[in-house]
Amino acid sequence: MFLMTLVNAFQIQLFKKNNLKIINNILPIIFSLLLIIDQKSFQRIFENKKLKLDAQAKISWLKELENSIFIGPGNTELYKFENPYFAKIKIESQNIFNTGNWETFSPHWEKRRLQLGLTEKNIYFDLLQPNIFWVGYDVPDTSLFVEMYLKEKYKLEISREKIKSYLDGFSVYKFEEN
């Protein structure tokens, strides 16, 4: 609406023969505004493209670790930037396991946990095995919550290490007992 008003005012001034000075003063301002608006949209497009490439890198990295299991909170969504009808990259194996969400109380969740080889009574103890990683977003830092839980509840001396991090805040952590 603002641009239409500017263009309309510009046309009115253009058809008045005595106002060439005003046109010469307004023209650079209008072009500068258009350039700023256009530059912002290009910046948004570039950011979205970077995030999509980052998501593809994340998925392909997780595909390389087919024998590993990734445990994460319920908000761990890998395909945030993928169109479900035209998705090009998918993880073939189902080695991502959500915890702490409503499905945690489902009988199917328990069967799937055992099927993946997560045999500890407490799911967080499984994170101490060599091929099991915690995945999640940096905000909120759920890996810190898991670390504090294991230290405070079970008096374990453990450490967590960030293995991989991505632009959208998604990170992969490894827990080890000291």
Q: Which stretches are low in confidence, meaning pLDDT under 50 for 5 or more residues running?
A: none
- How many runs of DSSP E, i.e. beta strands? 5
Secondary-structure element series: HHEEHEHEE
The N- to C-terminal Cα distance equals: 63 Å
Radius of gyration using CA atoms only: 26 Å
What is the residue-mean pLDDT, rounded to a whole number?
Answer: 76
- Structural class, by secondary structure, is alpha/beta
Q: For the report, how would you describe the main beta sheet?
A: 5 strands, mixed
Strand order of the largest sheet: 2-1-3-5-4
> How many DSSP H or I helices?
4
Taken as a percent bin, the fraction of beta residues is: 15-25%
Indicate the percent of residues in helices: 40-55%
Gross geometry: elongated
Descriptive account of the structure:
By secondary structure, the chain is an alpha/beta fold. It is built from four helices and five strands; from the N terminus they run ααββαβαββ. It has helices at residues 2-15, 20-64, 107-116, 142-154, and strands spanning 69-73, 96-99, 132-137, 158-165, 170-177. A hairpin with a 4-residue loop joins β4 and β5 (170-177). α1 (2-15) packs antiparallel against α2 (20-64). It is elongated and about 80 Å long. The model has no long low-confidence stretch (mean pLDDT 76).
